[in-house]
Amino acid sequence: MPNSPIEHNPLLFGHDERPAVIAVEPVGHFIRLFFRTNGRVHFHDEPFQPFILVNDPGMVSGCRVPCAVRELTGDDFFRFQLLFDSWNECLTARDFLAVKTGKSYSSTDAPYLFLPDLSHQYMLASGTTLFKGFEFSELRCLALDIETGCAEGYGFSNPEREEDRIISIALKDSHGEEIVLRGDQLTEPDMLRALNEVIQRCDPDVVTGHNIFRFDLDYIGRRAQRHGIRLTWGRNGSQPHVTPHARWNLAEKALEYPRWDIYGRHIIDTYFLVQHYDVAGRNLESHGLKAVARHFGIAADDRTYLAGAAISTVFQHDPEQLYRYNLDDVRETLALFRLLGYPWFLQSRMFPYSFQNCVIRGNATRINALFLREYLHRGHAIPLRTSASVPFEGGYTESSIQGVVAPVVHCDVASLYPSLMLTYNLAPAKESLGLFLPMLAELRRFRLRAKQAAREATAEAERHYYDSLQQVFKVLINSFYGYLGAAQHNFSDPAVAAEVTRLGRVTIRNMIDLLLAEGARPVEIDTDGIYFRPPEGCATAEAERELVQRVSEQFPEGIAVELDGRYQSMFAYKTKNYALQEYDGRIIIKGSGLRSRGVEPYLREFMRDVIELLLAGKAGMVERLYQQYVSRLRTRGVDVAWVARSETLNESTESYQAKLRSGKRNRSAAFEIAVASGKLHHSGDRVSYYVSGSGKDATAYEACRPLSAYDPAHPDINVMYYVEKLRHVQKRFEPFLPQEPTLFDL
Question: Which one of 94, 299, 494, 661 is least enclosed by Cβ atoms within 10 Å?
Answer without folding.
Answer: 661
